[in-house]
Amino acid sequence: GAVVSQHPSWVICKSGTSVKIECRSLDFQATTMFWYRQFPKQSLMLMATSNEGSKATYEQGVEKDKFLINHASLTLSTLTVTSAHPEDSSFYICSASRGQNTEAFFGQGTRLTVV
Amino acid sequence: QKEVEQNSGPLSVPEGAIASLNCTYSDRGSQSFFWYRQYSGKSPELIMSIYSNGDKEDGRFTAQLNKASQYVSLLIRDSQPSDSATYLCAVVNSGTYKYIFGTGTRLKVLA
């Protein structure tokens, strides 16, 4: 399978600060990347879909000004959680696919704790 | 009706038995179907993809697809305790191309 690397794997930040999470496809070009969050014992919740070179499409209820997504190249997408608060603490996971209807591969996930 | 439905489990099977995991979906136009395994505290890992009706085998895993019945299943032969995890069914929406995940079935393989 293809490799998707997500960094950092965990981060602790103070309330009010911003955190950037990187998602890289290491051995393929990802035309589409997806960002999810997952709370303990709950299912994946899609936050946004990003296509290389265009603006991300956010799911209903996800604040685009709070969760900034950039997909600047075919191998890199970033999620920035701005002005983080304790309720933003969660497991954030990216996935990447070569194109529509193809397999999507997940990064290792980033566990964010806001204190 | 949810777009992708799975029984949450837990499904308990003895070591060496066959585990059968099921998934139904609502989008008749979907063309791509996937099974992921997620261990507690980890991200999902792709196990199988299936695009055509019938069976697809890979090692101990067999995926089965029936588009007429809108049904996907995953069989795990010779189940091992290390197979204990949550199994997620994913279906690509034919209109948005988003991956729609079921809530997952928790599998426990008893040693």
Fold and architecture overview:
The complex is a heterodimer of chains A (115) and B (111). Chain A has no helices and 11 strands. Chain A has strands spanning 4-7, 10-13, 19-25, 32-38, 45-51, 57-58, 67-73, 76-81, 90-97, 104-106, 110-114. In chain A, strands 2, 4, 5, 6, 9, 10 and 11 form a 7-stranded mixed sheet that branches. A 4-stranded antiparallel sheet of chain A has the order 1-3-8-7, with no helix packed on it. Chain A is globular and about 35 Å long. The N and C termini of chain A lie far apart (36 Å). The mean pLDDT of chain A is 94. The model of chain B has no long low-confidence stretch (mean pLDDT 96). Chain B is mostly beta strands. Chain B contains no helices and 11 strands. In chain B, β7 (61-66) and β8 form a beta hairpin. Helices cover 0% and strands 54% of the residues of chain B. The chains are: A mainly beta (115), B mainly beta (111).
Q: Helical residue percent of chain A?
A: under 10%
Strand fraction band of chain B? Answer: over 45%
Reading the helices and strands of chain A in chain order gives: EEEEEEEEEEE
Which chain pair shows the most residues in contact?
Answer: A-B, 20 and 21 residues
Spatial separation of the terminal alpha carbons of chain A: 36 Å
Q: What's the Cα radius of gyration of chain A?
A: 13 Å
Q: What shape does the CA trace of chain B take?
A: globular
Binned strand content of chain A: over 45%
Provide keyphrases for this structure.
heterodimer; A: 115 residues; mainly beta; seven-stranded mixed beta sheet; four-stranded antiparallel beta sheet; 11 strands; globular; B: 111 residues; six-stranded mixed beta sheet; five-stranded antiparallel beta sheet
SSE topology sketch:
The complex is a heterodimer of chains A (115) and B (111).
Chain A: E1 4-7, E2 10-13, E3 19-25, E4 32-38, E5 45-51, E6 57-58, E7 67-73, E8 76-81, E9 90-97, E10 104-106, E11 110-114
Parallel strand pairs in A: 2-11
Antiparallel strand pairs in A: 1-3, 3-8, 4-5, 4-9, 5-6, 7-8, 9-10, 9-11
Chain B: E1 4-6, E2 11-14, E3 19-25, E4 33-38, E5 45-50, E6 54-58, E7 61-66, E8 71-76, E9 85-92, E10 99-101, E11 105-110
Parallel strand pairs in B: 2-11
Antiparallel strand pairs in B: 1-3, 3-8, 4-5, 4-9, 6-7, 7-8, 9-10, 9-11
